[in-house]
Design goal:
heterodimer; A: mainly alpha; 76% helix; B: mainly alpha; 70% helix
Amino acid sequence: MLQPITAKELEYIADSLSNEDLLMKQNALLAASASNQALRQIGQQMLHTHQQHYQTLMQSFQQHQSMAPTQPQH
Amino acid sequence: MYQQQQQQQPLPDEDLAYTVLSDLKRVVREYATAATESTCPTVRQMFTNLLNSTLKMQGDLFQAMQSQNMYSTASPALRQELDKQIKEYSQTQQKTSQWLQQRLGGSQQGFGSFAPYQHQSHQQHQSNQHQPYYS
């Protein structure tokens, strides 16, 4: 069941998006420039997975958008 | 050959892979924290799924690095250290088992899964001293 997102959850999701963004870039470097074939391959796979993670996190923002109050609540 | 790679690469293979590995380890911890601190069940489930997925990637990368000899594993623990810990924690388990029996009285049968690891007959004798008189 979907509940309005808390301020804490919002922060964790935002931090996670930053993490996934960084890991995408690191894996792109691994996939493109490692001299070892096995590392290039695993970098490619991980890049794909981090892109999916990023999408998942973005979707959770969008899912909660309509329920978020516009006034502070106490 | 090696010289040539050095010029093309931003970092040597080991360093590049290690950077990704340590960030994966950090992100695993952050997803675990985020899951435990989530209120919305949907958000908690999302963080749990991301945790499992990231943990799997970390494990796969570690395996790949180990098979390419890029990761020196810690030296094995000595037999005597292992023996010492088994002895110590068997005693802890025995004491706690007795404590549980005292607290829970006659209902300790349900805690059979927490039977002490070794010295079964010795434990039996000792625990009799602590049995409630009515049992």
